[in-house]
Amino acid sequence: MYKIVKAEKLADMIYLMDVEAPRVARHCEPGQFVIVKLDEKGERIPLTICDYDREAGTITIVFQTVGASTMKMAELKAGDSFRDFTGPLGCPSEFVHEDIESLKKKRILFVAGGVGAAPVYPQVKWLKERGVDVDVIVGSKTKDMLILEDEMREVAGNYYPCTDDGSYGHSGMVTTKIEKLVEEGHQYDLCVAIGPMIMMKFTCLLTKKLNIPTIVSMNPIMVDGTGMCGACRLHVGDEIKFACVDGPEFDGHLVNFDEAMKRQQMYKTAEGRAILKLKEGDTHHGGCGHCGGDE
Amino acid sequence: MADMLKRVPVREQEAKVRATNFEEVCYGYNMEEAQEEASRCLNCKNAKCIEGCPVSINIPGFISKIKEGDIEGAYQVIGESSALPAICGRVCPQESQCECKCIRGIKGEPVSIGKLERFVADYALEHDIKPKKAEKSNGHKVAVIGSGPSGLTCAGDLAKLGYEVIVFEALHELGGVLVYGIPEFRLPKEKVVKKEIEKVKELGVKFETNVVIGKSTTIDQLIEEEKFEAVFIGSGAGLPMFMGIPGETANGVFSANEYLTRSNLMKAFDDSYDTPIAAGHKVAVVGGGNVAMDAARTALRLGAEVHIVYRRSEAELPARVEEVHHAKEEGVIFDLLTNPKEILVDENGWVKGMKVVKMELGEPDASGRRRPVEIPGSEYEIELDTVIMSLGTSPNPLIASTTEGLKTNKRKCIVAEEENGQTSKACVFAGGDAVTGAATVILAMGAGKAGAKGIHELLK
């Protein structure tokens, strides 16, 4: 069992937890993820590592409620436990292996969308701790949905919040902010974009035009997360890659986003049914599969 | 008097009924049936059956005990050689191992050694008969990577010798392919696998789940930081292969590993579990091995019409004869001498069919099997909503790539001595599918035994 030592609601539908997992905390690096399983009957869910404390042996995870399992997870409190917590999984971000002096010379732009701020944070923090200042754009729908603002402000060189509705910071999508920064004369050698697939796709379309190499962190459906099933496979250029072992970070200009987004929808109906079942409890009639509503 | 040339038949769930559930197909012998079958054993002095068993169980020895009605005694005889008899009795290909060497088999049917082993083991599980454990610890500490058949066997053997053994498992359940791969209807998880592993725990073996060696920690760190004196790698061959044909990333295309992991490990077939499975209405399973049969029979139980698509003919099917027979009985359709060319995808990214080509058998290839050759112009399309790729698996390179000085061959298998499991690295031993590539449960157990012997030679 893996004990939750802190549970906090960051915004509507977005939750943060510190979980005791000493082996993961001892070995993890920015860019990696964990797989959590709530209880005996739960499914395995991949979540990016948002922060870690090697001394305390804890891992910070941030998640958004999108389906039945994350809704159940959101109800957990400090003192509760996850039955399973596996990691660190995937490859660390490439810069972890790079020479710090050459990193310092690079101008790097991080772009986070929504809950994607969580996986961006440990990368920016890691760089800051080594004296590398980077620019960070964080986008969300509204001001209320913006997470980890203070934390990000502290580690980012320049911090640019944006909201789709203009309620805070730059008004508009992260892509319009990127365009604006470039117009203002900022030059970037590398962009790291993490968020919903649609946001990563449009960021990549733009950075390709702007000629900025771009890394994205893919979030496909996963089961084991160790390379034994291929549920998370995707096309990167002409090659098929398993996001859990070859990634999750890839060259965004080579990723086939349209295919990846279609694959993400695979269990849409099953997920919808699971939410219904959870909400309706005993009155649940078996989901729309029975009345033929969505089939 | 029974016909001594024929084996006592084993009771099974009726094909029509079992095709709709996940209950075990074979019920096994009861005491009376087991004793009757045991009486067919000639108790050969120079028993050939023992040679056929990869872990050399004293077969006439345990069968004599059954004849006497001493089932606990029979269990202890098996226990001298095998830690997982309830599993091996169910999943070993006995027809090509112990039973094919049986003298009875020359004129009639060989003795049902597997079913008798299973009977003894199930009796021990039901009556809570404990295996013999070491009297005292010898103070040496050994790590075992992987809780599949080879790891469990190696751990059990070392614990019996007094070693402190910790088994590290990447998944959240113990058993490796026994829990994620082989389906419930062939190998019940709660009733058999879990209880059998409990017996290994009773020997003193400790287990740590959710540890991915190469990520959560490394073998070098286990030796340097956690002071393990030897390591046995039994990490298996779990990396799935795909064909590389167009359409393979479409929704509704699965590796057999994914399909079976969802169904077996995550229990997606049971609505009270959270993991979903896209069961499919018309399913093609590509391949002809045991895993293909397991995937096909699982899809069938989830309500689909299922086709096995295999490029050679029935005679070349690598699956066990019994499994092919069961699959046919249950209604799996065999499209033989047929090979996929392309998976057809609809506008939403879902599988809508498969373009296949008919094959004929040409000259034997290097492996001695006749090579399938395409018949020009014989392409046609079949309508499908699900394709399960069961083309084999290879070892995951994670452990080899994170362990200094561990040699692998060109198939990514770890290089190790057959008799003692010694690898290119001091204090590190390996066995099972990680060394041989995908093989059988009993061969993995044999390799686990050899590894335990090698480690004991080193540390004693």
From TrEMBL, chain A:
InterPro entries in alphabetical order: Cyt_c3_hydrogenase_gsu (IPR012165), Dihydroorotate_DH_Fe-S-bd (IPR019480), FAD-bd_FR_type (IPR017927), FNR_nucleotide-bd (IPR039261), OxRdtase_FAD/NAD-bd (IPR001433), PyrK_electron_transfer (IPR050353), Riboflavin_synthase-like_b-brl (IPR017938)
Pfam families noted in UniProt: DHODB_Fe-S_bind, NAD_binding_1
GO BP field: pyrimidine nucleotide biosynthetic process
GO MF terms held by the record: 2 iron, 2 sulfur cluster binding; flavin adenine dinucleotide binding; metal ion binding; oxidoreductase activity
Chain sites annotated for binding [2Fe-2S] cluster: C229, C232, C244
Domain of life: Bacteria
Keywords, alphabetical: 2Fe-2S, FAD, Flavoprotein, Iron, Iron-sulfur, Metal-binding
Domain annotation FAD-binding FR-type: ranges: 1-95
Matches recorded under Gene3D superfamilies: Nucleotide-binding domain of ferredoxin-NADP reductase (FNR) module (3.40.50.80), Translation factors (2.40.30.10)
UniProt cofactor note: Binds 1 FAD per subunit. Binds 1 [2Fe-2S] cluster per subunit.
Cofactor annotation: FAD; [2Fe-2S] cluster
Binding residues annotated for FAD, in chain numbering: V62, F63, Q64
Name of this chain's protein: Sulfide/dihydroorotate dehydrogenase-like FAD/NAD-binding protein
Species assigned in the record: Dorea phocaeensis
From TrEMBL, chain B:
Name listed for the protein in its UniProt record: NADPH-dependent glutamate synthase
Keywords of the record: Oxidoreductase
One MF term in the entry's GO annotations: glutamate synthase (NADPH) activity
Gene3D superfamilies: Alpha-helical ferredoxin, FAD/NAD(P)-binding domain
InterPro entries per the UniProt record, alphabetical: DPD_II, FAD/NAD-bd_sf, FAD/NAD-binding_dom, Helical_ferredxn, SudA-like
Keyword flag Oxidoreductase: yes
Pfam families found in the cross-reference section: Fer4_20 (PF14691), Pyr_redox_2 (PF07992)
NCBIfam families xref list: gltA (TIGR01316)
Sequence ranges assigned to domain Dihydroprymidine dehydrogenase in this UniProt record: 18-128
EC numbers for this chain: 1.4.1.13
Oxidoreductase listed as a keyword: yes
Domain FAD/NAD(P)-binding: 141-448
PANTHER family documented for this protein: GLUTAMATE SYNTHASE [NADPH] SMALL CHAIN, GLUTAMATE SYNTHASE [NADPH] SMALL CHAIN-RELATED
